[in-house]
Amino acid sequence: MGLIQSTSKARAVARAFLGLGPFVFTIVVAGLTAIVVVLWQSPLVGPLLESPATYLLFTAALLVGELVPIPISRGGGVTDYITTGTTFTVALTITGPLSWAVGAQVLAVLVDDLRKGRPARKVLFNAGQYTLSAVAARLVWCALTDQAVLGGRVPFRPDHLGAALIAGAAFVVVNHFLVGVAVALESRQPLFKVIGEDLQFSVTTSGVLVALAPLAAFLVDASPYLLLLLLVPVVAVHASAAQAMRHESEALHDGLTGLANRELLQSRLSRLLKQAQADDDRGPGLLLADLDHFKDINDGLGHHVGDELLVELGRRLQAFGVDLAARLGGDEFAVICQGGREEMAELANHVLAALQAPVDVQGLRLQVGASVGLVVAPDDGQDVAVLLKNADIAMYEAKRDRGRVCWYRPDLDVNSVERLSLLTDLREALDQSQLSVVFQPQLELTSGRIVGAEALVRWHHPERGQVMPDAFIELAENSGLIGHVTTYVLEQSLLALSRLDRRGYPLQMSVNLSARHLSDLSLPGRVADALAAHRVEPGRLTLEVTETGILSDPVRVDEVMRQLRAMGVGIAVDDYGTGHASLSYLKRLAVDELKIDRSFVTEMNANPSDLKIVRSTIALGHELGLRIVAEGVEDQATLEQLARIGCDVAQGWLIGRPLSERQLLERLTRDAERSRRAPSGLVGPTTEET
Per-domain residue ranges for the chain? Predict the structure, then answer.
């Protein structure tokens, strides 16, 4: 039984060694053999007894050098490390005995690798390759100086300087070659590519370390304690390197979140692109994410709350790779993906979930949406600038439908140029007062009178002509200009309402709010200021919101609507029936008015299903105590049918097209004159004749 167990253990050990791979296995076996031979044949105890300070100081310096490497920036946020242990290993190798050079180097490797938790195969390989490097250096040294390879200690002479430098170069070359072969085999890259990438760095840094080895050997011969003088430049190099790394880190990282900044992201992306192109691989991919409603948090709760939110979101993104996530500025983040489209799609879902998950900040539970744009090389670009541009275009497209992910498509690029041009013109339009407000009349069906109007924004471009709202409202929302547009429309509407009131025509004014603006926590204050400035009673103003807007950010929307209704401002649900979860939010929110979408009203006389929907909506609204407004009324038959089934107010081209304030005043005056001449409660005579 014992023989069987021993055989099994032997086979397990053999399998473990063979699992290292042929090359690594060869280096490990050769290295271990060399260690045994050197420690057995080369004097070890004798030199220590003759000069204990020399070998103990050498060993201590080698250990400290391995355990406390010097950080060196490779540029673009890449940090490498050099160890001063090379200096003392080479010094021990040329002065002898080889047993101390090998023993001290292997001890330092074992301590450092085990401290860092490296796997056994790497520990064994490192011990083997360092041993073989030291043996190679010793062989070169002895060939040039006629000394015994396994002999004892020989004092260093100045005329041995050239041999010492060549031996040191042999140590570095063998070490670099063995490590390069192992990396090339593991990563399946060409050997010359792997070795060539680090050759310049290795020659530069290792050359300095090798040049110090003869100095260390010479100082020890004079007095072992003179070796301590080398600590001064070593400590100085450590301090200056650490300071340089701190400065570089500050320059390449976002000061708030600690993530990489745009410059570092570009550098990392460029490096990965070159690597993928050299290997003829796909990738890397780039994800660009922009938060929705972040400006509202800053404006409504303060920048300190917004900063804490960004810090937490940055921490979440670090989970996808500390070296791959970045903050590009404001509320815009990026994450690099080293895979292709499948990996990018999976990453996008995880990032979107991480950004949209609630965040607790100073006792508040905040939640933001996010829009994500995706690109992957080489399909969507073969350089950093193009990838960033296309990712931004895709993200902008994603913002058109918040909370979703959008891949870049070439056709988006053309639209983006047009949108950017239109956006520039829109900024100028706001500055130069090119926008105007028109008013579409609303007819009360029981009295036959115009009782209200919906304010609609118009833009007459000096070159493009009339620009439809569908073309620029969404652009204003996504660019942050919607606040300026809404403020302008609100001010002009209240101004018109005030002037019409003074002429004896009190109306109810309806103003549309975008989904983005509805969650702006500062909106109620601005509405209150506008009402006070124009001396308009809050109850005369109705703010129209869409079902999509209500559901976009329920927490903030609820709070904004609560404050508006507390002021006395009316709330209308626009385009009712085209969104989702209508009954659930009608139950949750207190609104004043439902506007039935024109898609149901226009064909209600020809389509029984539409008529049933309109009739049931009116009945439901009245049960809830709401006023019902039907949009899209374009013929007399539809108007009369709405009156029969109990609709309160009608709006559409039959009632009147959008009018300027002057035209609306003329219409009201004309209707008043006609009413005085032939008073009637009938609907027909009060409708627009044109």
Answer: 11-252, 262-408, 421-677
